[in-house]
């Protein structure tokens, strides 16, 4: 062995040693970089900065495609963002790369809990609660989100109390509580929850964004502007830009509002809020042709939104198209009536959360007005309370038939007929 090494000159031997050291350093630095990215992703996930978490986990996955744990963290990030399809694909890749199957099954359970498909009384959830391991925060988060999806806010508030008691320094339960109050148009309590969150995490852009919205709903536009501007100083959030423009619009600062919405549409020419607001500004300024153009596009983007449909009807009326305006005024009135009915039913659900028929009625109303995604959530909620609820299975069978999904239609048709036989 020594003779083989001696056949090379001293310079060649030193060159070989240098190459080996360099390669070792490169391998080591690559490993260190990946570990650093995983740590950064976990930190971003803990502070609910999902965009940053996704970016760094993806960068780590690109550098270490053999590691199943990175695919697991990507799956968790997608789950927290509500993207079940991408989360499932990442979990499948993690399993193929040798990730612990039990850990993956726990994440799949959390996904179902978060989607409102499993209740706290289910065996899988009780198993998680009995042995939380390192997932205590994730379990709380999934249960609260699932309760929100299934509109069981009473359970959500009880879990939030336990969450705050177990993790008093965690800002997330205050964020979740704020979302529930905001969704219920309880602006005062929503404001208190978001301000409490900002005491723990003063730089969280999502909290500033929601607080700004709550303040705007209370007509406190100057305060809202401060929080929208904070969001825009750290992100390029289009919702923050739209909210800032709305504040200027409400304060009759038309030119400033126009500049903000022009900037928004420059980033996204089809942005609904930008089209709607610019159409309304054109309408106020008496520029009927421009108003019709903007508001027609807004109404096409969201045909079941009252503001867009009514604004479009007004623009058509002002431009002299009486027949067109009459049709859209009728449609906007129907949308307003459906919205009123849904709000009334939601109020009844708060008082009687275990009534499947109320959830079915909300789903039916939403489906009739083209809001299929939201309707399906309410139908699932009805079936969670009563798996044999005949009207819901019948509606779902009709819906899936209209979508060309014969298998799902047949499944719900069979359940519907089975339910009929019970009566």
What can you tell me about this protein's structure?
It is built from 23 helices and no strands. Helix 16 (272-284) packs parallel to helix 18 (306-319). Among the domains are: 1-110, Serine Threonine Protein Phosphatase 5, Tetratricopeptide repeat, CATH 1.25.40; 352-423, Alpha Horseshoe (Serine Threonine Protein Phosphatase 5, Tetratricopeptide repeat). It has 423 residues and is mostly helical. It has helices spanning 2-6, 10-46, 50-63, 68-80, 84-96, 101-114, 123-130, 136-149, 153-166, 172-183, 187-200, 205-217, 221-234, 238-250, 254-267, 272-284, 288-301, 306-319, 322-351, 356-368, 372-385, 390-402, 406-421. The chain is globular and about 75 Å long.
For the record, the CATH class of the domain at 1-110 is: Mainly Alpha
- Rg over CA atoms, rounded to whole Å, is 27 Å
Task: Give the SSE order as H and E letters.
Answer: HHHHHHHHHHHHHHHHHHHHHHH
**Segments where pLDDT lies below 50 for 5+ residues?**
none
Number of helices: 23
Q: What is the average of the pLDDT values? A: 88
CATH fold node name of the domain at 1-110: Serine Threonine Protein Phosphatase 5, Tetratricopeptide repeat
- In total, how many beta strands? 0
Supply the key terms.
mainly alpha, Serine Threonine Protein Phosphatase 5, Tetratricopeptide repeat, single chain, 423 residues
Layout of helices and strands, plus pairs?
Elements: H1 2-6, H2 10-46, H3 50-63, H4 68-80, H5 84-96, H6 101-114, H7 123-130, H8 136-149, H9 153-166, H10 172-183, H11 187-200, H12 205-217, H13 221-234, H14 238-250, H15 254-267, H16 272-284, H17 288-301, H18 306-319, H19 322-351, H20 356-368, H21 372-385, H22 390-402, H23 406-421
